[in-house]
Amino acid sequence: HAMKIGFIGLGNMGGPMAQNLAKAGHDVTGFDTQTVTLDGVATAASATEAARDADVVITMLPNGEILKSVAAEVIPAMKAGAVFLDCSTVDVDSARAVAADAAAAGLLPLDAPVSGGTGGAQAGTLTFMVGGDAAGFETAKPLFDIMGSKSVHCGASGNGQAAKICNNMILGVTMIATCEAFALADKLGLDRQAMFDVVSTSSGQSWSMNTYCPAPGIGPKSPADNDYKPGFAADLMLKDLRLARAAAEGADADTPMGQAAMALYARFVEEEDGAGRDFSAMLPRFEARGRG
Ligand code: NAD
């Protein structure tokens, strides 16, 4: 049956996600601080107006601070029993704080960050990693099935964010390892195609090598074949690695490889030419440097 949905944050991800829900027949009212008009999506004058009477309120916002301020405004306006569904990537502590406030107000909170990028948002093929009660997950499941092709219930509130940052910490580390190994192979005179053929079928394989190969002209089509235009921007990888560090500090977990990847992406984005480039552009960056 059609649900009434308030959608707050209609950016690169939220815009197409809201549109896919409207296309599937749901009654969607959107709000963004920027002027955004989307076919089939009604526009509200405020976040509160978008949230009032909604069965589900979805947020897709830049960070935890903005999420907390929007949640403080919207939660008191929502009807009892409604689902507060945050799909942003934020720190685990903010996700858990917002979920506690929503639950105290009689709502069903879910944290459901996504992977799949803007292409997945447009095509409706995102993966949702979901924290929160089973009842909320069951209510939101039909919406996950429209906006995505996979949703995994990861347990209590905050666990969706935990799954997301752990996954992306592995991704950042394997991408850097793959790029530095390609740069070493080049200097040793090993052909890139031979390197790919061996590693992609040997124990060094990973998604970074096999699916998203950072070397242009090698392996399946990837941002390397498009001059390293994102794709998944290095800036966003840096954001996720910083969230992983914050979570590791809060939980007293030892994550030295995650920290090393974070420091390399910080330097790449903030001091080198990495801002706005795909995160696999670490390969030309390693190529350009010697050991010094
Ligand atoms: P974006 O900057 O394109 O969109 C964010 C939107 O939120 C903007 O339109 C902005 O105007 C709006 N906004 C900011 N403050 C607001 C407020 N107080 N009230 C209402 N609207 C407000 O970012 P995006 O790429 O859509 O990413 C959104 C989230 O999804 C981020 O947390 C990001 O980390 C995560 N994410 C992004 C990708 C990606 O590839 N872009 C992939 C996975 C996850």
From TrEMBL:
GO terms for biological process: L-valine catabolic process. Residues 4-155 form the 6-phosphogluconate dehydrogenase NADP-binding domain. Residues 158-283 form the 3-hydroxyisobutyrate dehydrogenase-like NAD-binding domain. Keywords: Branched-chain amino acid catabolism, NAD, Oxidoreductase. It comes from the Bacteria. Signal peptide: none annotated. Belongs to the HIBADH-related family. This is 3-hydroxyisobutyrate dehydrogenase. It comes from Roseivivax lentus. The lineage of its organism: Bacteria, Pseudomonadati, Pseudomonadota, Alphaproteobacteria, Rhodobacterales. The chain holds residues 356 to 647 of 647 of the full protein.
